[in-house]
Amino acid sequence: MGILQLFTLLGALGMFLYGMNLMSSGLQKAAGDKLRNFLSSMTSNPFKGVLTGLGITSVIQSSSATTVMVVSFVNAGLLTLAQAISVIMGANIGTTVTAWLVSWLGFKADISILAVPLMALGFILSISKKSQNRNISELIVGFSLLFLGLSLMKNSVPDLGQNPEVLSFIQGWQGHGFGSVLMFLVFGTVLTLVLQSSSATMALTLIMLNMGWIRFDMACAMVLGENIGTTITANIAAAVGNTSAKRAALAHTVFNVFGVIWALITFPYFLKLIGFITSSVFGVPNPAADDFAVVVEKAADGTVIQTATQTSALYGLSMLHTLFNTINTFILIWFIPVIEKIVCFVIKGSKNKEDEAFRLKYISAGPLATPEMATEQASLEIIHFANISRNGLGYVRAAINETNPDKFEELRAKLVKYEEISDRIEYEIATFLNAVSAGEISQKTSVEIKSMYKIIGELESLGDSGESISRILSRRNIHKKSFDAETVKKLNGFVDLVDNAYAVMIANLTAAGEGRLNEIANAYAAEDQINVMRNNLRDEEIESIENERKNYQTSVYYMDVVSELEKMGDFMINVSQVLLKSQQKVS
Q1: Residues 336, 376: one domain?
Q2: Interatomic CA distance for residues 281 and 40, integer angstroms
Q3: I want to staple 131 with a disulfide (CB 3.0 to 4.6 A). Which of 34, 293, 333, 442 is the partner?
Q4: Hey, is 579 helix, strand or coil?
Q5: What domain range is 141 assigned to?
Q6: Percent of the chain with pLDDT over 70
Q7: What are the φ/ψ torsions at residue 476 (nearest 5 degrees)?
């Protein structure tokens, strides 16, 4: 095999993988919110969950994308672990559609003939001003590249008939009985781990079988290995996720490993079942027969002519892929609670609840399969950020009311910690949004991300204000000043108004995330109440100073606290205004 031929084969494989990713990405962008809503709504029972996973994976042609999406949704609390397990089961069945497409279109017909004209159509759609047309163009170009890559792979594989020693070496692996089955299973697993795509490994397996390099039973063993190897994607996605995300990824592994175990135990009988169904349904030779062998014929120009045994082998392998995942699902769907208990036992929950409360909850599993869906995670994380910030206001209230110096210092330390937490959360959300923006995103997603940058900046400023109030109170204590009971009562009333503004802001964040924010009269009303009270408190305090009823320095500290609380109201109304502006742009 020449160096050029080797690089051509690698390039063709790269084209196949890139085409698969591009097609999947285009489909997900075109589906957008509909796909996300379908996933979150159609999982009320295990059977619906299986159908959901099957449907989505059949459409986007990537079980890895579906599984990563599911892990992220579990991470975000949008799906329970039991729901996620059922969707993953369906995704495993849905991914078998790829094998059938390749068998039918990639080998039986030369779809690459249509691929180049389709790319012309894709280019025309790519220069459209409508984002939906550009998404469809991505889908078309990805589909074309996928089958062009497959065609190039078929044509660039070496003719081992001219290299009998190489063919003899490969076929020598097949002469060790059940040991050969295990060897090819491991080979399929490792190849999928390297390529990070079970679809690409399946395509290579189909080519090896089509060229007569390996027997049908060895190809079946490789497919079983691919089902183990594909679980690594979800585990990578969940590696930095929360406990639920890790459990969902482990459930995917448990499901596939269990299936491979029963398939290996019943391997000879399972192959006979596959052979019987394939020959009965398609009217082709039985690929599991003892005397079955792939016959490879070539035309005068060297192109491979599809024979009945090649067709039978390809259909049989695709049938095994489908039947394996279908049977596995029908067995394990009744044991979802058991799988849930197993993964919960293996992956324990966090013992440090305080650390759990201050870490990112929704985007720590990394971006979703496409940027269009990642904004859901970011939106939920921002609401979580706002709730953490509101908790900080509770410590502001406690610090205002605290008269014991030691206890006050504890509260001050907490407010400093909350300021540091808000800085860290802002940075991590911004880093996530930067990663999302680096991909191909729609105009709608671009608008949403820009508004999110502004919102997290305002939320970070709320943390700064809380820490600033603690510094003001600390200076007051250093100068041995204190607020009288009436002043503390007024500040508590002002904190109540700020807390109400927090509730309004969080309600608006939630409404915007669900696409139902039409006006922000509630935010303006909350802001007006804060401004009116600020003005009244300031006027009362100035009058008290003029009448010498208050110490001037104490009044300065008091008014500084009032000013910082009023600033918090400004930051919160800014958030609602950004939300409304963004909602109007995308609607």
Answers
A1: no
A2: 36
A3: 442
A4: helix
A5: 3-346
A6: 76
A7: -60, -45
